[in-house]
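hey so u asked for the seq, here:
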Amino acid sequence: MSYIDSYDHELIGRLGYLPLYRPLEVIAGEGWGGYDFSATPDNLILGGGSGEHPGLVVHHLPALATRFLYAQLSDAEEEILSTEDKDVVEDLYFTSDTLEFCGWQIADYANLHKMAQSEALMTPLAEGMTVETWLEQSLGELIWYALPDLNRHHSQLQRIFAPFHIAPTMRNIVIEPPGYPPCGGRTTENGRAKWGNVRWSKRV
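ran it, C-alpha cells below
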C-alpha cells in the first residue's frame, strides 16, 4: 500500500512505469519536497509515495497546458497574438514551481531519465530536451485534451489558440481501455474504502 492509498483519489493513467493520480481530497503532508507530499484536487501526482515510488506533485496545471500549446507556435504565428493575449499566455507560461519532486533520490532521477528515453513510448525524450520539459509537454497535452475541467483557463486558451493548428505531439499517457476491471484509485463510502476508482471508467 502506498501513501496515496491513505486518501481518496482517482487513477488517471500511467506514464511509463509511473502511475498518474489525482487526489480527491486535501492531502496535508510535509512541506515542499517532503517524502510524504501535500496535494489538493487541483494537482496531479506521478507515483504514489511511500510504499510505491516517490511522488512527483504537479502544480499549476493551466501553465503546463499553456506550455504545450505555445511550443507549437512559429515565430510568425506568435506575432499574430494581441498584446492582451500575449500577456495572458506569458503569465501562465512563466508560472514557476510546477514540478515538485518529493523525496526523490539520485537513482530515481536517473531511472526517470532512462524511462523517458524508452522507444516503447510514443514520444521518447528528444536529444537536447530536459526530462522536466518532456514531463511538462506530456502532461500539458493530457491536461489540454482530456482534463479541461482541471484547467480554469481552458476556455480563454481555446479562444487565444483557435487561429492556430494545434495537434497532439506526445501521446505518452497510457490509460486502461473500457471493459478492463478497474485497478487503482480509492473512494470512501459509508466510512469504508472502496477500490477501483479509475477516472475514465466513470465515463463509459
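Residues 131-146 form the longest helix (16 residues). The chain has a mean pLDDT of 92.
lmk if thats what u needed
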